[in-house]
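Hi F.,

I've been meaning to write this up properly since the lab meeting, where we talked about keeping a consistent format for the predictions we share between groups. The idea is simple: the sequence comes first, exactly as it goes in, then the structure tokens exactly as they come out, then a line or two of notes. No screenshots and no reformatting. I'm using this chain as the first example so we have something concrete to point to.
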Amino acid sequence: MIKKQRIIPLLCSCLVCLILTGCNPASQSLNTFWYDSPAEHWMEALPLGNGRLGAKVYGQPGEEQIQLNEESLWAGCPEDPYPEDIKKHYACFQRLNLSGKFEEALQYGMENLTISPTSIRSYQTLGDLYIRFMHGRATNYKRSLNLEEGIHTVAYEVEGHRFIRESFISSKYNSIFYHFRCLDQQLVSCDIHLLNA
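Output, unedited:
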């Protein structure tokens, strides 16, 4: 269970930057996935990540859904992943392997280099961020994921006005960025809310 006092600092430090100024859309690339409709299910949403933060972006024009993940949110209770005297045991484990005693090394490692539980636990989602946009029905819809730049882009039109959204996760700033604007200088309004997992 995620405590509320932890959510607010986490959102402030690593979650979403909303920017309403213009810059050029992500350039087209051979290493880009293109779609002409938004994701309706989790498997269709496009992933972003930097090794610590993760997101699945659906690209819905009326109400964007971004599923959020952060590396410290795991199933189960907190555990110290390192057993006592790990340096000594690792040296012995290494010697056994270098001597070609692989079965003995495996048994030694299981007894001295692991703690309970020995299996990798599953990540738990931080929650879902919803951004509801105050505009009409979208046409000329496109969404893409540029694998070289790690930028997810959604572009569409509403009543002849062109809208674009870009999202990415920065390693340098350890943050999730979500940038949306109208290319025709129309104001963009939205409601934002977070649903905890």
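Notes:
The chain has a mean pLDDT of 83.
The radius of gyration is 22 Å.

If this format works for you, I'll send the rest the same way.

G.
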